[in-house]
């Protein structure tokens, strides 16, 4: 009887954690390389944005009707972004994208200027040449479509670590 209670409590705790706090997602495609690679499994934090706002640079999970996307937040609500000569400018000031390789910086192209509406975000994949993102299909991302922040790569085990 004691074992039965312990198992039920453990299952209940696991269900609550999985449903409301943490979940896993599998990265599909190469749009976030080299940060995240195709087939990696990540744990994402579902509660973080109930307590705080998404920040520039966060790797987030975006919920869409047909599938979820993993992208990086580039522009925040109310900002104006522009990419000239592969360099990002936010409200006219240059922003260093330290998370990108030089090769991916050179593949960004020119964009904008684009004004981001309130309660919306502008996202891009780290592999700019092939990413479907706010530039070419996803558009602005409403805040309630962001369902979590990628925290940890858990598979394959050789890639175990914190998402940057």
TrEMBL record:
Residues 1-154 form the Peptidase S26 domain. It catalyses: Cleavage of hydrophobic, N-terminal signal or leader sequences from secreted and periplasmic proteins. The keyword Protease applies. It is an enzyme of class 3 (hydrolase). Its EC number is 3.4.21.89. The keyword Hydrolase applies. It is a single-pass type II membrane protein. CDD domains: S26_SPase_I (cd06530). GO terms for molecular function: signal peptidase activity. Its main location: membrane. It is found in: Cell membrane; Membrane. NCBIfam families: sigpep_I_bact. Belongs to the peptidase S26 family. This is Signal peptidase I. The lineage of its organism: Bacteria, Bacillati, Bacillota, Bacilli, Bacillales.
